[in-house]
Amino acid sequence: MRSILIIGAGRSASSLIRYLLSKSETENLHLIVADLSLALAEKKTQKHPNATPIALDIFNAPQRKAVIEKASIVISMLPAHLHIEIAKDCLEFKKHLVTASYISDAMQALDEEAKKNNLIFMNEIGLDPGIDHMSAMKVIDEIRAKGGKMLLFESFCGGLVAPESDNNLWNYKFTWAPRNVVLAGQGGAAKFIQEGTYKYIPYGTVFRRTEFLEVEDYGKFEAYSNRDSLKYRSIYGLDDILTLYRGTIRRVGYSKAWNMFVQLGMTDDSYIMEGSEKMSYREFVNSFLPYHPTDSVEIKMRLLLKIDQDDIMWDKLLELDLFNPDKKVNLPNATPAQILEKILSDSWTLEPNDKDMIVMYHKFGYELNGEKKQIDSKMVCIGDDQTYTAMAKTVGLPVAMATLLILNKKITTPGVQLPIKEEVYQPILKELEEYGVVFNEQVMPYFGYNPDLF
């Protein structure tokens, strides 16, 4: 049997493992599911006859090399910074590698050697990055095939809570790594290009510069700018494009409310707060407010953030139980961002019966035969349950499908790469439709801007 080694059995691996096990008989597959936690690996494989769960410490080099050497192909579902040693082992033992993570400089440095050994190191084949690349390149390639010239490309994606589970004032719950949500937008100004002009949004205002999106049957959303929208300009072949913007989707009103935390400094991860372990939620809030001999924490907060008494922003803060003097942070040597994450997790953790939702939205503006046109492409995916979430489905399924295509020699281009070639995106997007990941493309009036005003 052909052996697929899956390293990492976390949340994103559930749909990946289920898919490959469903194909194991017809495709002659045996899965080795390796995780630091043997119990987790056992839970994900569910005693399937074509799967072997094992405990693996990836920092144990001899053990790691031994399992990689026996595999036909390797999938790494570990955090991005842990891929590189696995990739080097794959070079040593001449194994293909698939990950859902961004291509790091260290991974890119292996490109020449991978090509020399005719190895495929497929990266960025999850949701975002992944499905965003594939669904975008499909339309861009189709426009170019007709002789069209790209003028505008905007791409948005968000992990949200499904409408039936949306029961808080923020219209949001954590569907993925909470830390990434708390630190969103940091690390430099958001950068994009609009009608040929470079634009920059500093972190302090990124959540007040949003774009609105309408998705049929799901209502209105907003999107704030990603930090670097220009990262893929050359990779997509869009060096001459006038407008290029990438953003993160939330429900309308989220960004304005989140901006309160940004303005207070609660999302800062650069310093430790003294006495954080014994600090109450109320004391945490008060740490960012000016001293006043008589005003309460609530009054100081209202005055500082200019929140009117009837403003929904205030209700959103109350809903988080921010002013509770009895709830303790219980985190030693914590940063403001870590404490905020803990507080939000009280309210924003998915309940056992909650479902998550992925929304992706692309806008393509182009010129064909002297006429400006636009295509909007939208995708909504709802999770099944807490194990087979929409996030796990959209991250894991493309990884699994790419792995099988590589094994079956349907994807043959060697080297360190992301899924922008037709041999990759065409079969995967087609098969994803069978699992409810469907893009609906609509021809729209071109909404381009007046260049004289920008």
Automatic annotation (TrEMBL):
One of its GO terms (biological process) is lysine biosynthetic process via aminoadipic acid. The keyword Oxidoreductase applies. InterPro entries: AASS, NAD(P)-bd_dom_sf, Sacchrp_dh-like_C, Sacchrp_dh_NADP-bd. One of its GO terms (molecular function) is saccharopine dehydrogenase activity. Residues 126-437 form the Saccharopine dehydrogenase-like C-terminal domain. It holds the Pfam family Sacchrp_dh_C. Gene3D superfamilies: Dihydrodipicolinate Reductase, domain 2, Domain 3, Saccharopine reductase, NAD(P)-binding Rossmann-like Domain. Signal peptide: none annotated. The keyword Metal-binding does not apply. GO terms for cellular component: cytoplasm. This is Saccharopine dehydrogenase. It comes from Flavobacterium pectinovorum.
